[in-house]
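TA notes, week 10

Several of you asked for a full example with nothing omitted. So below is the full record: structure tokens for the whole chain, then the designed sequence directly under it. When grading your own attempts, check the secondary structure regions first.
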């Protein structure tokens, strides 16, 4: 495949751009994944991260109060995650009431920023670090995507909780 460059663009800029893309791809492949834990060592929150990531990939995640309440009310949700540090008590009561009324599993996490990062509401910089993380008060899983060990850990947690 032959790449033709218009005369209006200097070749140096194109080379610089291609070199930076190559460097980013090479660095991403060299970095060992932090989020993948060895088998058998998943705790509840690591398992939750894995489930949220898989659900996000399969387009089965709803984020924010409006979308979460719609999914909860239509009984499309399998799991609801709520942040503890929400300032509005009516927000928390509404989500808890909908989960209780429809029998949907509810899990609470400490920080809305951390929940927003897990739900994909962030930008990732060149080094692969999360930047510009937006907080999220509520996340609903409508589709788990695929069966995994992390999903089994979450299901076992909810079975033991009942």
């Amino acid at each position: 495949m032959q790449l033709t460059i218009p005369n209006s663009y200097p070749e140096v800029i194109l080379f610089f751009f291609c070199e930076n893309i190559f460097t980013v791809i090479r660095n991403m492949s060299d970095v060992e994944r932090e989020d993948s834990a060895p088998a058998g060592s998943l705790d509840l929150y690591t398992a939750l991260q894995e489930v949220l990531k898989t659900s996000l990939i399969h387009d089965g995640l709803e984020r924010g109060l409006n979308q979460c309440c719609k999914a909860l009310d239509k009984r499309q949700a399998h799991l609801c995650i709520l942040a503890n540090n929400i300032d509005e008590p009516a927000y928390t009561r509404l989500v808890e009431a909908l989960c209780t009324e429809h029998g949907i599993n509810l899990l609470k996490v400490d920080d809305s920023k951390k929940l927003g990062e897990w739900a994909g509401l962030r930008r990732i910089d060149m080094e692969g670090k999360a930047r510009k993380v937006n907080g999220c008060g509520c996340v609903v899983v409508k589709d788990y995507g695929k069966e995994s060990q992390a999903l089994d850990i979450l299901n076992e947690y909810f079975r033991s909780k009942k």
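The domain at 44-161 is CATH 3.30.1330.30 (60s Ribosomal Protein L30; Chain: A;). Use that as a sanity check on your answer.
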